[in-house]
Amino acid sequence: MHPKRSIFLIIFSILLLSLSHAQAQSTPTAQELEQTIHYLIDRVATSGCLFFRNEKQYGAREAAEHLKAKAKYFKKEIQTPEDFIRLAGTKSIVSGDDYFVRTKEGKEMRCADWLTKMLEDYRKKMKETRTKKLSDGLMFMDDPRPKGRGSSTGASVG
Length: 158
Fold this sequence. Notes:
Blueprint: H1 3-25, H2 30-46, E1 50-53, E2 56-58, H3 60-73, H4 81-88, E3 100-102, E4 108-110, H5 111-141
Antiparallel strand pairs: 1-2, 1-3, 3-4
């Protein structure tokens, strides 16, 4: 590979990774926010966990419906996934009591902590997906095959 092309690819990779990191640290777009909140609510619905709110136990689907309703109620105030967790998934508006989760394994924790862990896992997965797409794109750009010089067998086309 030509040295100038190698330098270009390295600089291009660093720039894309920097932009990706900066985007992850900035306020998400409305679509990204909605997608992330939907993911978190879906994780609640399919978790098989028990949720405790105002001294009552709720199944996963009921808890997800409650989070949807609170997300709708706080829609104007939710600018980040952390806002969603803080406003919808932390405590009761009525009693001020924290929400709790009991996992299928029997571990109990604050709902906000459980949702934060789900958010961290989601972001890690999204970052790995972006990195893979980036590296796949760079491998395509780094294709050593000659361009426009006959067929793949090396025979010239006449």
